[in-house]
Each structure stands twice: as structure tokens, then as C-alpha cells.
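Researcher: Sequence recovery benchmark, item below. Answer with residues only.
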């Protein structure tokens, strides 16, 4: 296992950039699919839905299965390889990443801090209320309010210690699994993209999706580079955050269509 882990640690920043590009490409593919669905709905005189019930169910099931697979792999003897990979990668990153690089990565990571997300969430809520988007403001509030209790509950359930590090750029306390930054970034930036799809002109939709995907990717992966989370912590954070995000968007869309049909 050491050779692949050392290669990953050596090329961590390049891989970070490559994964960012791949994530943006995947987000753009999703946006184009949604655009085609929108054009078809308009052509047929039907109401457009950002996410259909079947799609939401499939995404939630896939994310739940991924989270369960990671949790079981960490808890079972047969899954020792995942714990070993996590620890070896954290050790290699600690030995290879330069302090100057860590300072830049820490700045990116702070964009997902609870304080930053809470302040931005309050600003978005205020703007929605000023625009009299009461229904959307309610959905936004529910989505944001669920981040801390859901993630904290999962952390308390699994009680996984954090990896050791001594670089001093970021000091975190509490349990490690799943990553709160990955969970929070998925929900906040994903929900922000949904809000912008609802209230902004269509020409801005592609950019909104691309920026949201980019922010979720760089914030989550920064936690691995900084060695404040294991690889599996971040993947589980993404998976659990996606479940809550899809549930919130599907609920918002269902409410919107029920209101429009009255």
C-alpha cells in the first residue's frame, strides 16, 4: 500500500486540482442534463422540476449505501485496509506537504468553517426575505439548520479520533467522522446553487452550478491535505451531506409544485 500512498501524497496538490476539474465537468454534465429536461418541459407545457422524485431517490440511496459501506469498512476487521490507507495517507501528507502550501490550503479550508457558513447563511436568508421569497427562505432555513445537529449526531455515534498533526495552521477538536466541513460545504453550496437556480436569470445557472461544485470539492479535500480529517471522513461527509441536500431540494420542489397547482 505504501507506494500508491506515497505517490498520492507527493502529488497531492496536482490531484486536488485534477479532482476539481473532474468535479466541475461532472457538475456541468448535470447542468446540461437539467437544461435539456427544462427545455423539454417547457416545450410540452409542463412545469420544470430541478430534481425529479425518482432521481432524488436514486441519489439518496447511492449516498446512503456509500456512507454505510465506509462505516462498515472502518468498523469491521475485514475493512482494515481502509483504516490502514487513511493512516498511511495522513502520515505521508504530514511528512511531505510544505508549511507554505499548508497556509494556502488552510485559507481555502476556512471558507467552510461554521462561522463563515453561518454568516453567509444569514445573509442569504435576509436577501430571500427582502425579495419576499418566503417559501424558499423557509426551505433554506431548514436545510441550514440541519447541518450541525445531523453532523454532530453522526460524529457522536462513531466517535472516531482525528489524525495527528503538528503544523499549527488549523487546530480542530472533537470527533473526526464524518467531516463537518465536507458535510456543511455540500449542503450550503449545493443549496445556494439551488436557490440561485430558482431566483437568478437562466444565463447565470451554469456558473452557479460550477462554482458550487468547485467549492464543495476544494473545501472537502483541503481537510485531507491539512491532515485534520482522514480520506474516509471526507467521503462520508460528502455522502451524508448529499443525502440531506437532496432531501431538502426534493422537499422544496415538491412544495413549490403543490403551491403552483392550487
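Model:
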Amino acid at each position: 500500500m505504501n507506494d500508491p500512498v506515497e505517490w498520492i501524497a507527493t502529488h497531492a496538490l496536482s490531484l486536488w486540482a485534477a479532482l476539481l476539474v473532474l468535479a466541475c465537468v461532472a457538475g456541468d454534465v448535470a447542468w446540461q442534463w437539467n437544461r435539456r429536461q427544462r427545455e423539454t418541459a417547457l416545450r410540452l407545457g409542463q412545469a420544470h422540476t430541478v430534481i425529479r422524485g425518482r432521481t432524488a431517490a436514486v441519489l439518496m440511496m447511492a449516498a446512503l449505501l456509500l456512507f454505510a459501506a465506509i462505516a462498515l469498512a472502518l468498523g469491521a476487521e475485514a475493512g482494515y485496509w481502509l483504516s490502514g490507507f487513511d493512516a498511511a495517507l495522513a502520515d505521508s501528507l504530514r511528512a511531505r506537504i510544505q508549511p507554505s502550501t499548508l497556509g494556502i490550503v488552510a485559507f481555502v479550508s476556512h471558507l467552510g468553517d461554521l462561522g463563515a457558513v453561518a454568516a453567509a447563511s444569514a445573509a442569504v436568508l435576509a436577501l430571500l426575505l427582502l425579495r419576499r421569497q418566503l417559501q424558499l427562505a423557509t426551505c433554506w432555513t431548514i436545510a441550514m439548520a440541519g447541518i450541525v445537529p445531523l453532523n454532530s449526531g453522526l460524529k457522536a455515534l462513531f466517535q472516531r479520533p482525528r489524525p495527528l498533526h503538528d503544523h499549527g495552521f488549523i487546530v480542530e477538536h472533537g470527533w473526526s467522522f464524518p467531516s463537518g466541513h465536507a458535510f456543511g460545504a455540500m449542503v450550503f453550496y449545493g443549496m445556494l446553487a439551488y436557490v440561485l437556480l430558482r431566483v437568478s436569470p437562466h444565463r447565470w445557472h451554469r456558473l452557479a452550478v460550477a462554482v458550487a461544485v468547485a467549492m464543495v470539492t476544494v473545501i472537502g479535500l483541503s481537510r485531507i491535505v491539512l491532515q485534520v480529517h482522514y480520506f474516509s471522513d471526507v467521503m462520508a461527509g460528502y455522502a451524508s451531506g448529499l443525502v440531506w441536500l437532496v432531501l431538502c431540494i426534493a422537499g422544496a420542489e415538491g412544495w413549490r409544485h403543490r403551491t403552483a397547482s392550487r
